[in-house]
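This follows on from our talk about sequence and fold. Go ahead and set the record down below:
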Amino acid sequence: MKNELLSKFFRYALPGMFGMLGISCYILADTFFISLGIGMNGVAALNLAMPSYSLVHGLGLLLGMGGAIRFSVLKSRGDGRGASAVFTAVCLIGAGIAAVLITVAALFSRQIVTLLGAEGEVLEMADTYLRMLLFFSPAFLLNDILVCFVRSDGAPKLSMASVLAGSLSNVLLDYIFIFPCGWGMFGAILATGLAPCIGVCMSSLHFLRRRNSFGFTKGRFLRYAAPCFALGLPFLAEQISTGAVIVAFNFILLRLAGNPGVAAYGVVANLSLVVISLFTGLAQGVQPLFSRAHGEEDAETSRRLLVCAATFALALAIAVAAAVAACASPIARIFNSEGDALMQSIAVPGLRLYFIAAPFAGFNIVLCSFFAAGERALPAQLLTFLRGFLLLLPAAFAFSALWGVTGAWLSFPAAEFLTAALGAALLFAHRKNKKGGRGQAIGPAAGKPDVKDISAAGEL
């Protein structure tokens, strides 16, 4: 049992991690090539526009992850028509959201980046990035939806391949558009916007090969929207809080250290997005297994999967924090092509202090996914809001007022630690309720700790 469960865990976790790593590299590649081809002002402009990416990606996860969780549960219970109705609902809602975002891009992009603090040359570049990003929002949303559903339909490798294909194309096109073509910030966002289009084409292979167990259906499918929103809200809230934190840190560091401070935070924030994406990919990767165990009311398998995920996240987090601490200076230099001494002096300690949070963040993200995949939306939402709006934002302003830039860096570890403590308490209470008889596994799944394959078909 243990070997089989571990095999299934890695079969889903590793593709999820590599896939999310690929998504995070969209922005990281932009940061690297912009720093080389445009300079510090380009990095500052990118960082000011980055919350828009968090919003678009968060909306994609709201629909994709929320829908995929409900899809997995319905599929495990034999309701194929309901599973297809969920997919239909999230796709139509996504089309409506994309129309709104395109309208905002056409009418208000310049006003938005001005409110975010951009001015002069930085404003022009940030406006270009934001407008083009929102114009490509239909591709981003559809890509997120397909990645989540294809993974939950038993094809985690194809899901990963579609994301990596988009990411690698983004890196290649970034270089071509910024350097040989000389298109600057427009080239960077054009490369980023084309990446999900390639991902959608890859995910479509799941349908072309006729390995899909879902599709568009007629009927009253909108009644499935509310459960998807409730289950996907933690994933949207995480992305929105990431964007809100970026905005807050930009204002704090702009006040404390000017544009070099914003550029330094750009280095820290972009690397943080990559690291957090590993934990997010782990959590999203094992979501189908969590949801399948929940659908079959197999509490023992659910517990063992959580132990596997939390242990793996902790080991990965410790390795990442140690590596960043040891290599902080060369990491900062990679994104400091102009050799700005002030930016370097801010970024190096920032990297070392900020990533103390990695072990707590990894645990929190896995636990949020565990609760959401088990259709326990409230604790998942609570932990997500605590990590961002309720703890991190107040801590960032309070700590920076007390200890300056150092305080700003320390606010992230403090917020993640406090969230982890509450998360552990919620998990303990949940387990106590299970032992007391509420939510006990019943029916065919009771006493069977094994997890059946979600689907033998659909592998790349």
Remarks:
- The chain has 16 helices and no strands.
- The CA atoms of residues 114 and 380 lie 34 Å apart.
- The chain has one domain: 2-436.
- Residues 2-436 form one domain.
